[in-house]
Amino acid sequence: MNGTTVPPPPADLNEQWNPECFLNRDFFVCIIYMYTLGGQMATSTRFVLAIHVLASLAITDGKPMRSEDLAFSVQTNATFIRSLLLRLQEAGLTTSQLGTGGGALLAKPSAKIRLLDVYRAVEDGEVFAFHRKGPNESCVVGKNIQEAIRPSLDQATQALERKLGGVTIADIAQEVTRLGKFAIPWSGC
């Protein structure tokens, strides 16, 4: 590290400090610490779980499914499924049937529900999020990083949206039936 003394990590952090990632620029203009966290970055599973729920509804071919039954398939709790169904209903993708034998239903044919519609219904914000607080403007990297990576991230977002816009819940349900070797309608889990 070129004879530079590496300062200790801040006392209020419990993460393991990795001094090999210390970078010291001339006159300490830009000091970067990297802390090795004990786990992974938090990522959302709502999109994938919403596809799972919608595919389940598609293969029942119009038979309502209770949130408890959907939760069993997804391996989560029914409260989470109900919150997911609410987002999907607000987007016009699902509806519900009340009473005995009621449950969630697709609000339109599965061939009309694109994965892009599902993504937009359940995920908050952009595909790629920038710094929550904003980068340090006094750092040459921090001052320019967002402008430098924005074109690549915009292109990646556009490619993702094109792909998701070309795949429907019917396509996913058909692949599930092919892999599971069963036909629609299905009355299993």
How does the SSE layout of this entry go?
Blueprint: E1 16-17, E2 23-24, E3 31-32, E4 35-36, H1 46-59, H2 67-74, H3 78-90, E5 94-97, E6 103-106, H4 115-122, H5 140-165, H6 169-180
Antiparallel strand pairs: 1-4, 2-3, 5-6
Helix pairs in contact: 1-3, 1-4, 1-6, 2-3, 4-5
Named CATH architecture: Orthogonal Bundle
Overall pLDDT metric: 82
H-E order: EEEEHHHEEHHH
**Backbone structural class:** mainly alpha
What are the salient characteristics of this protein?
mainly alpha; 6 strands; 189 residues; two-stranded antiparallel sheet; two-stranded antiparallel ribbon; Arc Repressor Mutant, subunit A
Model description:
This protein has 189 residues and is mainly alpha-helical. It has one domain (44-189): Orthogonal Bundle (Arc Repressor Mutant, subunit A). 43% of the residues lie in helices and 8% in strands. The chain contains six helices and six strands, in the order E-E-E-E-H-H-H-E-E-H-H-H. It has helices spanning 46-59, 67-74, 78-90, 115-122, 140-165, 169-180, and strands at 16-17, 23-24, 31-32, 35-36, 94-97, 103-106. A two-stranded antiparallel ribbon has the order 1-4. The chain has a two-stranded antiparallel ribbon with strand order 2-3. Strands 5-6 form a two-stranded antiparallel sheet. A hairpin with a 5-residue loop joins strand 5 (94-97) and strand 6 (103-106). The chain is elongated, with a radius of gyration of 23 Å.
